[in-house]
Amino acid sequence: QVQLVESGGGLVQAGGSLKLSCAASGDIFSIPAMGWYRQAPGKTREVVAIVTSVASTNYLDSVKGRFTISRDNTKNTVYLQMNSLKPEDTAVYYCNVQAVGRSYSSRGYWGQGTQVTVSS
Q1: 73-119, pLDDT tens digit by residue?
Q2: Cα 101 versus chain centre, distance
Q3: What is the 3-state secondary structure (H, E, C) of 25-67?
Q4: How far apart, in Å, are the Cα atoms of 88 and each of 10, 51, 77, 85, 111?
Q5: Is 2 within 8 Å of 22 (Cβ atoms)?
Q6: How far is CA 68 from CA 10, 17, 33, 58, 59, in A?
């Protein structure tokens, strides 16, 4: 089992910044991919950004140039720096980790979610 602890959400005015963190711990041999998803009220969950173990990244088109995903492999932690926030970025943000355990089994894990609210 892998445990994820998210932090960094909150309330910010439009144009402001927030940084989310997600630390993974437990049965971890490797983490091929880490990512952030978000879900706004009444909408389906969508992928925001993903970073692989070799630091390859992909972003949702609407956040390109404003959000930056990064990871610290020594801490099994993924970050999401969010700049120039807009009201439409308001959502619950979830961390997702694809982890390989010491028995070489692989599965995905979700964080508990952190609320990001951007006021206009």
Answers
A1: 999 999 999 999 999 999 999 999 999 999 999 999 999 999 999 99
A2: 20
A3: EECCCEEEEEEEEEECCCCCCEEEEEEECCCCEEECHHHCCCE
A4: 15, 23, 26, 8, 22
A5: no
A6: 18, 11, 15, 10, 9
